[in-house]
Amino acid sequence: MDINKLVDSLFCNQCVSIDILKGNIQCEYSYCECKANSNFASLLDMFANLCYLVDGSNFKDFNSELNFIDPREIRRHTMEINQTWNNHISEKTYSSNEYKYISSQSLYIIKEDLKTQKNNNSLLLRVVFWIRTLDNYFSILLDYIDNEIINESHFPTKRGVLLLRLKSKVADYVFNIRKEVPHTDPNRLKLRYFLNNLHLSKKVSADNYIKHRYLDFGTSKSFKNNDIEDLKIGFLSGDFTVDDYDWCIEESSNTSKLFYFNGINNKNEYCEIITKKVKELLESNPHFIILPELFTPVDLQEKIQQEIDDYYFRKTMKDEPVNLLMVFPGSFHSWDHNNTYIFNVSRVINSSGELVEMIYKQNQFIIKKDENHTGILESFKKHDGYEKISFTNKDITIFDTSLGRIAILICIDFIIDEIAEVLEDRLVDIIFVMAMTPKPDSGKFKRRFQELSEKNKAVVIIGNNGSKAVKNVINLPGINKPYTTNSFSEVKSISEIF
Ligand SMILES: [Zn+2]
């Protein structure tokens, strides 16, 4: 296979796969003239194409080559590439908005440079080093964000979504200031570990619709390392038993029943307690507040929202600083407006009391049938009980913020494989889970947060309902044991949990 043809295919937007060392090319159409298909909308689009075709098997081969190559060769490649690119960019500067376009000249100089390579092995090295040089160049996008020139950190391309790596402030604090050692992801031979600024995420997720939203916390909340010490999480958690709910149980089949909760017993009194407790939490000026699953009927969530609104108003009137960024007010079963479906839903609120996003649980809880069930659970002696909710809302919203990427989930969604893949692939840094489980710090939950700690250096924060032993969980990356307590209500800063 001649080098020119391989290079043309690396810039072909129809190409399915290339094995650079073996010289195999698979194009979408067998008659593809790869030369003609290098139409890219932007420099990012072209970069995504290279990442798409190089990541995987080629990148593994690249790492294999590195083990046997003279280090001076590596230096030669990177120096030559940097020189070529810097010369080019000094002549043709991309100004702040132009990363959305591509100059044909840029495409030309990269292609021509690659075509000077004498054999497949050196072409492989050369193209990976080109990817890294371009990735380094794209650090300008982070500067644009810092200087508020742009407010987007994900860029759709033909090959998938390119994500700008936001700084994960909590992870940086844990590793740079507290000097903890990150866990190693055994799947290391991936382009994502080689690049600093951009990551090409997979084009599709089978089960979910993924939205990225840039959430501006304001310049006063840009979070330096020292600020992270004082990043405070407010928890208000529960240990509800089955007797605390107003149940609805319906026949479904010979082997199963459906259930949902109409409400909470002694609701008026309960709402007063919870509202009062939220007020108390606010007095400690936390950054986040999390309440657990099946803890707050929607009208109580709205009441909490009103409390936040009042709090924000009081604080700003007195010119006092408000740390609050987001409130996850717990979830509950709720009928939709047409009384057609029930959702397990949480209304996420921002610091000034506005509704930011509705979070829907997307998977079903099951009560296993058991002859020993007593009380209300007697209905499930011979029948499994299925949570009667709709899973039709499959949105996963990822908030791109100055703290890193944030995702919010309800209970078992956290341990569902497809959702974990999304969290991993979309570089989520902080995950809040409103849970109701006897074991939020062990078993499946623990396995999942350890995995996300390895892969994303992710922080997992769980507010739990349904266990007397463990109510609040914070799992920091690189640390083997999660922080757990059984406090009904508390505010914890990151520095306090070491
Ligand atoms: Zn082609």
Automatic annotation (TrEMBL):
<dbReference type="Pfam" id="PF00795">
    <property type="entry name" value="CN_hydrolase"/>
</dbReference>
<feature type="domain" description="CN hydrolase">
    <location>
        <begin position="278"/>
        <end position="437"/>
    </location>
</feature>
<dbReference type="InterPro" id="IPR036526">
    <property type="entry name" value="C-N_Hydrolase_sf"/>
</dbReference>
<dbReference type="InterPro" id="IPR003010">
    <property type="entry name" value="C-N_Hydrolase"/>
</dbReference>
<protein>
    <recommendedName>
        <fullName>CN hydrolase domain-containing protein</fullName>
    </recommendedName>
</protein>
